[in-house]
Every structure is written in C-alpha cells, then in structure tokens.
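Help needed: design a sequence for this.
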C-alpha cells in the first residue's frame, strides 16, 4: 500500500483526528509522524514545530465549529435555533474532544485567518439571539451566558465530570430550556 502523501493540509487533518483520539494535550510530532510512517524530522518540511501544528489544528477546529453552528441555526429562530445551536455545540464537544480542546488554544492575531473562526462563532451567537430582540449591552451579556453555559456543561460531560445517576440528556434539555426562558424574559431580569 502506498504511503499517504504528506502535505500541510494532510498533517493538520491527521493531527485533528489524532487529537480526537488521544487528546489535544497529548498531540506530539512523534505521534503524528508515526501515523504517516515517517521520522519526526520529515514533518518540518511542512510545519515549523509543535506550536505551529497546534495552532493550525486550532484554526481548523474553529472553522469546522463555525461551519457546523452556522448550518445548525440557518433558517431557524428563537427556541428552534437555540436547540439546534446547543445540540450541535454539545455534539461537537463530546464527539470531537480533541478539536474541542483545540478551540481554546491561543492563536496568534496575525492575519485575518487567525480570528475568522472565532469571529464567525460569535456572529452565529448574535444571529441566534436576534430572535430574542436583545440590544446592547444585553446581547453581549446573553452571548457570554450562552457560550459559558454550553461550554461548562459540554466540558464537564466530555471529561466525565457528571457522575450522578440521572440522564445527561434530561439535564441538557433543562439547561437549554432555562436559557430559552432567560432569553425570552431578559428585560424582566
């Protein structure tokens, strides 16, 4: 069988998959080189080192995240958009734990590509919240509430932080329903 051609894109794709398997924090050049059946030094033709690889994986993960969240809310509003956004967020976090961890990796601010994924995720959050008729600064507060609630639950679930003998799906839906109630009644808070 022919060995897969090594390109920067192939390295980033394989690294993202490997991060999902072993954890982003355990991603090494040695593990990636082993996946391609080459020596570590062969990778330096395509990347500058581990930090460069991690940043590229983070940028890829942020773009994938933004694409998935944007597709989830497209054509939906209010509760339907919130459910779609939240369920997609949770599925990405628990189904792709390495990529999820990568979305929190600090990326350099050089160039527009570095912040495009983050900016698009925030744009999708604001688009979702338009259905709740929030103006500034309430919209910013609501985006922060939304992201921190979904992140907290998803992160705890992905790392085995919930141990009670109760359905996570029921708890998840209650959390999302509570977000909907809060967003609907924001002006009364």
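Sure. Designed sequence:
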């Amino acid at each position: 069988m022919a060995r897969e051609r090594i390109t920067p894109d192939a390295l980033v794709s394989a690294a993202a998959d490997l991060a999902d398997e072993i954890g982003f924090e355990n991603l090494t050049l040695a593990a990636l080189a082993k996946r391609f059946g080459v020596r570590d030094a062969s990778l330096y033709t395509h990347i500058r080192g581990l930090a460069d690889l991690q940043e590229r994986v983070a940028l890829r993960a942020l773009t994938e995240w933004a694409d998935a969240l944007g597709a989830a809310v497209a054509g939906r509003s209010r509760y339907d958009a919130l459910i779609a956004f939240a369920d997609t967020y949770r599925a990405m976090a628990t189904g792709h734990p390495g990529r999820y961890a990568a979305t929190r990796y600090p990326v350099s601010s050089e160039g527009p590509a570095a912040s495009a994924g983050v900016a698009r995720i925030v744009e999708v959050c604001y688009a979702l919240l338009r259905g709740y008729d929030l103006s500034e600064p309430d919209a910013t507060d609501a985006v922060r509430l939304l992201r921190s609630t979904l992140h907290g639950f998803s992160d705890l679930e992905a790392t085995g932080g919930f141990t009670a003998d109760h359905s996570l799906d029921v708890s998840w839906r209650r959390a999302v329903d509570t977000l909907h109630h809060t967003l609907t009644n924001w002006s009364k808070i």
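The mean pLDDT is 91.
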